[in-house]
Amino acid sequence: MTDYVTIANLAAGLIGEDDQLRSPDDDTHMGRTFKAAWAAVRQAAIRDHTWNFAMTRTGLAAEDLSDVPYPWGYSYPLPSGCLRLVEVLNCGARDYQLEGRSILTNATGPVYIRYLRDVPETANWDATFVDAFAALMAFTTGNRIAGSAYDKDAGWKIYKAKLSEAKRVDARENPPVEFEPTSWELARFGGDGVYDGPPYPIPLGYPTA
Questions:
Q1: Which of 98, 154, 167, 179 is deepest in the core (most CB within 10 A)?
Q2: CA angle at 119 for the pair 117 and 120, rounded to the nearest 5°
Q3: What is the DSSP letter of 82?
């Protein structure tokens, strides 16, 4: 389990600081800077990747609106803790539009979604997210803490490298995603509502008749 102080000190090391925090309420320039940026950096880092630890799903009920934006028939508000909509499970990609904090669609509810939620508790963070978050915290606060001694370009490269590694690890933990066929594909390869065509993507030369 990794706590606030340990993660903050990882960021301090990436900035090049020898000083270490001793508590979350450390009343030093570095401590106050980390504390002020913590929530915003955490949410930005979660939004940057479909982290397994932050992924969840739910069903949404339609809003009671007298006027839903044209040409849609229903509006479904995102959960309050949603940082990023990942997938609408029972609508095709062309069958909805995200506007503001609402999903607009003609589908009757409930609408089921997968989304990234905020996870403030560090004990629930994935180890690769800890590394990526510390790198993004260093990038965000490095110049404020260390001035021109902090190399922001190098810091950004470190963050992108940490993020890339995390994506590889998360991908290995998940099975391949099988996408539902579109209505065009159903019509093209059968049209009876049951798709019996090739796996995605369709290879060149695949027999279609």
A1: 167
A2: 140
A3: E
Band (pLDDT 50/70/90 cuts) for residue 1 is low
In tens, the pLDDT along 52-108 reads: 999 999 999 998 887 788 889 899 999 999 999 999 998 888 899 999 999 999 988
Arithmetic mean of pLDDT, 158-172: 90
Q: Which residue has the tokens 């279609």?
A: 208
Q: What's the 3-state SS for 19-55? A: CCCCCCCCCCHHHHHHHHHHHHHHHHHHHCCCCHHHE
Q: How far apart are CA 36 and CA 184, in angstroms?
A: 50
Q: 27: buried, middle or exposed (CB in 10 Å: 19+, 13-18, 0-12)?
A: exposed
* Buried/exposed code over 82-102 (b: 16+ C-beta within 10 A; e: otherwise): bbbbbebeebeeeebeeeeeb
Q: Dihedral sign, CA of 76, 112, 120, 47?
A: negative
Higher-confidence residue: 199 or 36?
36
pTM above 0.70, yes or no: yes
